[in-house]
Amino acid sequence: MLVYILPFVSIVLGYLIAIFFQPKNKQNLKLLLAFSGAFLLTITVSHLLPEVYYHEIEKEIKTELVAKQENHNHHDHSHDDHNLSHDLHNHDSHQVAEVDNHSGHNHNHNHGSLKIIGLFIMIGIVFQIVLEYFSRGAEHGHVHIHEKMSKIPWALFISLSLHALLEGMPLSHQNNLALGIAIHHLPIAIILTSFFMQAELNKKSIFLFMMFFSVMTPLGTIASEQLSFLNNYYTEISAIVVGILFHISSTIIFESSEGHKFNLAKLIAIILGIILGYFV
Ligand SMILES: [Zn+2]
Ligand SMILES: [Zn+2]
Ligand SMILES: [Zn+2]
Ligand SMILES: [Zn+2]
Questions:
Q1: b/e map of 212-222 (b: 16 or more CB within 10 Å)?
Q2: For residue 81, is it within any domain?
Q3: How many domains does the chain have?
Q4: Is 156 contained in some domain?
């Protein structure tokens, strides 16, 4: 249940914090961003990424077992035939040759399907880069537009929603990641809401924007559980999300250290994010 609630609550909380407290301290927000980026990246590399590979290997072993079983049945059958006309020595050498053949096949096959995961991760990175042409980097807490807003910025809305929807999909297998997404979206929600208020977007539009944004991640989780089409492509979709999270979290960490000047508070925030992310 927390898998659906956490990513939703964090955005609502961020919205309320921005509305009621109107945080003026940009430095604290930057620290929270740095923490969330490190936290999200740690969960991605220590939970989601190994799980994607594990799934693929598991799938591979299952198909191998089925293939072996079929092979074996077939062999047993021919073995009976053999017994009628041939001696045991012939049969033994036949078996050895078959085992050698099979292990050779195993190695090649596994390598190819695992390599594909790397390609899907890169697709995720490129996909997020393209999304940011439309959102101007709002996913990693970057807002650039300076003029006043009279209506909902639709390009931002669509790209941000798509981003949040995709992020919800691996959560059906990866409950740990829900907290990572929640922590990552909390400062984003605070920054976006504050930004909209500064741009004098009307209150109703801000509310609607943030509410739609908050249900996108749980919606992605439900969709990946209910739609068998998405379930069948769990590995591919999750690998794409790994790419998205790689890009987002490393950009957050990168942008939070301006000019690569030494900043103890930020360094501590990042290390804290790594430690907590590891023990989730
Ligand atoms: Zn195989
Ligand atoms: Zn940026
Ligand atoms: Zn996100
Ligand atoms: Zn799984």
A1: bbbbbbbbbbb
A2: no
A3: 1
A4: yes
CA of 252 to the centre of ligand 4 (A): 27
185 CA distance to ligand 3 middle (Å): 6
| Other CB atoms within 10 Å distance of the CB of residue 31 | 20
The rounded Å distance from CA 211 to ligand 3 centre is: 15
Is residue 87 one of the residues assigned to a domain? no
* Ligand nearest to the backbone CA of 188: 3
- Which residue bears the tokens 């997404």? 181
16-64 confidence digits (pLDDT tens): 999 998 877 778 888 888 899 999 999 999 988 998 888 888 887 888 8
Residue 261: CB partners within 8 Å, gap ≥ 6?
A: none
Instruction: State which residues form the domain around 179.
Output: 2-52+123-279
CA 136 to chain centre: 20
pLDDT tens string 157-210 = 888 898 899 999 888 888 888 998 999 899 889 888 988 888 888 999 999 999
Q: Is residue 167 part of a domain?
A: yes
Q: State the Rg of the chain over Cα.
A: 25
